User: What shape does this take?
Amino acid sequence: MRGGSSKVSFVRVVQSLAWRELARFFRQRNRVIGAIGTPLFMWLLFGLGLDRSFSVATSADTNTSFLEYYFPGSLVLILMFTAIYTTISVIEDRQAGFLQGVLVAPVSRHAMVAGKVLGGSFIAMLQGILFLAAALFLDVSWSLSQFANLVGVLFIASMMMTCVGFSFAWRMESTQGFHAIMNLVLMPMWLLSGAFFPVPVPGTGQLSQEILHWVMKVNPLTHVVALVRDLMYEDRLSEVDFWVPSLTISVLVVIVSTVLFYAWALRICQRPNSGDLK
Amino acid sequence: MPTCQGMAEASGVSVMSEQLAIEFRGLSFHYGDRQALKQVTFDVQAGELFSLLGPNGSGKTTLFRLLSTLIVPQQGSLSVFGNDVRASADAVRHDLGVVFQSPGLDGKLTVDENFAVQAALYGLSKADSRARIAEVSDQLGVADRLQDHVDELSGGLRRRVELAKSLLHRPRLLIMDEPTTGLDPSARSDVWNYVHQLQQSTGMTVFMTTHLLEEADRADRIAILNEGELVALDQPDALRSELGGDVITIMSQTPEQLIEQLKDETELELQLVDGTIRILGMSDAAVVSELHQNYKAHIQQISVGKPSLEDVFIARTGHQFWGTS
Assistant: This one.
């Protein structure tokens, strides 16, 4: 039987490429540590350091410690770092020649994107779950369903960021350039997500606060952080002092933006990369 | 859209195109302003071991990328076993085994894992994939390396693993872009022997690019590219014999002066190529000693030899193979 007569299975290609992402990532220990170590360190440093000078009012008229407040943001930062690390492999694969091998195989670009993105998202989610262990030091108690929901949110949010990373990485020729772009795009997205400070309420009359409010409100990461916070803690943030999105809106925003970013990744990978034309 | 005539032709020659592995037809490609390929037309017969020879920058890698389906032709057409690369890319991809110049293996995975990913990409069933991995790794002498990480392998072994990987899905056409670049001479001849053996035992068509003249010489037929244009196409021996006789090469410190002098005083057919004087089509060896005697003062070195592929290249392009990158 000739190879020409065999039908290539979409699911098997996706599985196989996603598995490869996982194997690659976890075999490079510095990546595992790099992606989880920095956010963990930052969480402890800022959390403990700012704990005495910064506390956030909740709806239950209590205050949440900064260590607690900053935890969901750190979790999202881990997803983000991992998403960056895993999508950087698009550039490495192109430089090394592996990607060309996939591009000339009889597989659809969709299968290639799905494999890459699902693999990357799975890794990010696993790293996120690992970090959740640190929450044992906080005053939280989760039911099984809460935990399952949290994992679901972590996965979708990972997919969103992996798609963004993929779309940028596809067009880049060097990993340095990719890091620069990611610092320009993803870092501000994260800083303005309510990870570090809450979203200000609108209508205070201050232009800067007004701008900040709107930028943060339309940032999909704000909704990821809000969802994680909602699932982790019983008390919501005080809606008198801060703007807090509703659960339904956040779920919708996160799902819709993930779908859009996925579509973007699919679209962008149809274009040839100048790296293939040199 | 194909014209009526084109369609009639296509169906009329279907028996013939069965024997054609590759048809390049008026293929052009440019990167911005730079024309990499200009109206390249030639065929590769099924079962052939075919070499595409050209110096760096001659357009052979572009031609390879087009053939591999990595990039799409801008002008002209390209078919593999009768399937057009634009219209039936997937059918072409099933027929192709591709070995790129850059290593296509994942260094973090084992040899076996690399094979398994490749098998999935080409739709081999799990059982078939196991059988093929065993068979191919045996053929290429890497069976005892299946559990090794690719990063740990030597350059020569890696090439063989790569070759094995590209053969898993039983391609009808194996294409390789400078497969021996970066290998030491023994690993190079090793790769050659395996390729030759495979071609003999399976009847597979092999198309490879190279910038090594002695490598091209081992092919059934060669095509020579220069600055994006096809300058020669035939069997290596036929190309050489076209030049007829021997070639005399003279090195001189004052080549321009000497060639003028020779033109005035002899009837020889002289060529000045990149500072070297060449005399083609010599059948009388006595000419060498005569020249040496008469122009001793101007000649640093004089040699005589059978025409090489480099001579073919020089005859067709007017410049040396290595001086054109």
User: Anything to note?
Assistant: Chain A has one domain: 10-277. The longest strand of chain A covers residues 56-57.
